[in-house]
Amino acid sequence: MRMKKVFWAFLALLTLAWALTTWLGWQPPKDVPGTWWWQLRHHGLYLTGVWSVGMMSLIMLLALRQPWQERLVGGLDQVYRLHKWAGIAAAVAMALHYWGFKEFLGDGLKATFGRAGKPARDAVLSFATDWRGLGKDVGEWAMYALLALIVLTLWQKLLPYKPWRKLHRVMPVLYLAAVFHTVALMPLSLWAAPMGVLMGALLAVGSGAALWSLLGKIGQARQYSARIDSVQLLGQHAGQDPLEVLCALPSDWPGHHAGQFVFVQFDGAEGPHPFTIASAPGACGQAADGAERLRLVIKPLGDYTQQLHQQLHVGHSVRIEGPYGRFDGQGVQERQQVWIAGGVGVTPFIALLEARQPGAPAAQAGAAPAVLHYCTRAAAKDGVLPRIQALAASAQPPVELIVHDAEKNEYFRPQDLLRHGKALDIWLCGPAGLGQAVREQAQREAGWHLHQEAFQLR
Ligand SMILES: Cc1cc2nc3c(=O)[nH]c(=O)nc-3n(C[C@H](O)[C@H](O)[C@H](O)COP(=O)(O)OP(=O)(O)OC[C@H]3O[C@@H](n4cnc5c(N)ncnc54)[C@H](O)[C@@H]3O)c2cc1C
């Protein structure tokens, strides 16, 4: 919800700055046929350009994974959602800018009215007067590449995650090309305040972020060298059942809150993967050398995680970046707290349950009783379930555990949540389908507040 507000507020800010600057410098045009159409085309071209490069600057800024961004929108998964929606908005504005206003409307007006009412070519920044041709070409090619990358991001079946992630790294280069296009072609009149000040700040911050990304510096300040202290298979079948990995942390680890996640790099060639910290602070005890430990529960959901059991061994070094996220399972006291976990989406709830154990160092002040719905494929073979049952049994404030066992056709149905009351705070972590079903029901129920931890960052 906060993410949507930030998105619309940013779009409104860009539009307002453009409208004020355009209005302050506006001269009524000569009244020849087609003038007003040409004016519409002229201003539409610039407004869509401002939207597009403004949104791209926001995308670059959000890629920095800064703590203040999490506070603003409520967690890193929400920062990535905003990053994605800003990408979609930039693509739509870019398509309107080029095909809508420049090509389609420009050609149509030329054919209908001729060039008589067309505004004269705008003056640009003095140092950019010779950049016009190059600025246009660079902008056009960057636009094709950006649109192709945005389609590949949204249409996930076209390209698997790993090659997509490598390709996504060229985004900062394309952004810098868009900055060049803007500096070369944005009219001098729009560089006046307030648009000029806003655009100057956005291009400077966005370019800094793009260079930071190209230098591989993003997240570096929050990276820690840890080591594996224990690896255990939670079940019978390696490569199918989850692995429990305990990591011994360095002394400068800043600590975490129950429900947060980290990016974990077991292998330099593979790169970091996001995993929830499936333990409350201080709940995993210490390694032999006194180092604090945290727990990861990793389900083999893809090529890499399926062969992790062969790779990981005690003493193996791990790079951990974080912690990130604000999935704390604590809503408003007056509402019933409902937790919903699907499969390995139970990991943040393990941490939240541990934080509710008597004497836990990270006891949650002011926490309310909760109901946990846990959806599992087969309760009898679920290696994580016994721990969840034990933790729920002794949780304070209490947590009622309801297990939905698919093997026994005990499926979870969102409408069953109505029996918990009308005012619900729902905390959900699980597969996309489960999230979609609960979101659809939540849209029909005025008193439901849904907080979803997205297990997908693309
Ligand atoms: C916030 C968050 C918390 C998570 N917590 C857990 C957890 O506690 N336990 C658990 O088992 N799984 C967790 N996951 C999912 C886990 O990250 C993926 O299952 C894992 O990265 C898959 O890697 P793969 O190469 O084996 O699979 P692939 O088949 O390559 O990928 C499967 C899917 O995993 C995601 N993914 C893959 N690689 C990455 C990456 N480097 N960065 C981001 N996403 C990636 C993509 O959506 C991809 O489509 C979490 C994901 C997120 C976003």
UniProtKB/TrEMBL annotation:
Topology term for the membrane:
Multi-pass membrane protein
Q: Which PROSITE patterns match?
A: FAD_FR (PS51384)
Q: Which GO terms describe its molecular function?
A: 2 iron, 2 sulfur cluster binding; flavin adenine dinucleotide binding; metal ion binding; oxidoreductase activity
Q: Which residues cross the membrane?
A: 43-64, 85-101, 141-161, 173-191, 197-215
Kindly indicate whether the keyword Iron-sulfur belongs to this entry.
yes
Q: Does the keyword Iron-sulfur apply?
A: yes
Q: What is this protein called?
A: Ferric reductase-like transmembrane domain-containing protein
**From what organism does this protein derive?**
Comamonas denitrificans
